Amino acid sequence: MANGQGTPSRGDAVPFCPSARPTQDGAFAFGVVGGTLEERRVGYLEGRVPVTDELLAMAGPVMPTQVFRFGAPCAGGACTHFDGADCKLATKLVQLMPAVSKNLPACHLRPDCRWWKQEGKAACMRCPAIMTDCYTPSDAQRLVANPATPVPARV
Questions:
Q1: Does the predicted model carry a pTM greater than 0.85?
Q2: In this predicted model, what pLDDT tens digit does every residue of 67-82 receive, in sequence order?
């Protein structure tokens, strides 16, 4: 539920990570990476697609995380981006990357998404530019993805 300021409040249900690996328990595809080499963008699927051998084979010769975005239950303390309360990846995403969308993407992960629950619309405006495995990251993407990058203080 939103807190009246456009930012969702935290619920008790385990949130889903929008940058999961297809090998994680409960993983599903929710987006397809497209765009150009210079501007990769995620297109959101009409629903959650279960991970199957057939789906993974569609990635062809590249890694599935270069073609699809996967969601799965948040790994919490087993993830290097989790600080015990929040996803530092989501915080850095909002603070270090520019928005790439003016409207909320049509994403079926949003109701359960950790980034949405934690950072609200600001995370969604940047999410289409995120790839789990990106081999040509921008400087900002490199900083955001590195667990050793300190989380900037909020202004």
A1: no
A2: 999 999 999 999 999 9
